[in-house]
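Hi P.,

Sorry for the delay on this. The queue was packed all week, but I finally got your sequence through. Input first:
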Amino acid sequence: MWAYVAKRLLLAVPVIFGVAFVVFAMVRVVPGDPAQIIAGETATREFVEAIRKDLGLDRPILQQFASFLAGAARGDFGRSIRSRAPVSEELAARIPNTVQLTIAGLLVAVAVGVSAGVISAVRPYSWLDASVMFVALVGLSMPVFWSGLMLILIFAVRLSWLPAVGTGTLAHLILPAITLGGATAAIIARMTRSSMLEVLRSDYIRTARAKGAPERTVVNRHALRNALIPVITVVGLQMGTLLSGAVLTESVFAWPGIGRLMVEGILTRDYPVVQAAVLLVALAFVFVNLLVDLLYALVDPRIHYG
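Then the structure:
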């Protein structure tokens, strides 16, 4: 097991390096000069060049990239061009909020998606199955920003049940979590239904029923556990979607997380913040995929990593 983990971590190194290089290059292709933004439109050319030199933007691109990698290896991502505060401090202040929102969205997605998929599989081709799959299709088709605005309109503006924006209480978390987990719940529901239908047709399920096992036991203990492996794969892949969807969700609900920090950094051409935020998301995605692979062995004891 540990040899497999070490191998996966080694394979992740070039992936992270590639992501860092692509992001580093792309943020410099975006129109706009951060030195000019800091100096103002009326600043002299000499003043702008002095700011560029102070920020290190006058050096060759490869030297800047090498400095970024060396600093990132030490946990030092430089200083924000916009606030002049250490980027690591800004990330540390935002990470807990994004983790909280992502976990809440994932819990909503798994709870709703698995439950809906099991219900549809137990009553296949019925009106209940059709209704659940129709709702899943609608949830999958709605953009995150649109569903978020609709939830704000209904539950915050019209009904005044929940706060529209901000953070601090559980009530502030409900609407963003539902928004973030909605589309993922639809994908999980469809995958759970498909996997459950295949498992329920298996010989050992017919044997369990023939022995007189209660239907609840057949579904929950025998069928669901064996149907979870493809569902776990989807959940792991959707973690990347949740992290990227958090950018829009945090912007809609004014949630102070990494996604919103990334948007602010793009708008102000804050290179260090954007680079560090994207690199952090890439690291999280690699870690989640490794965790999903290890969960396979817990769900199915037949799986071994040599």
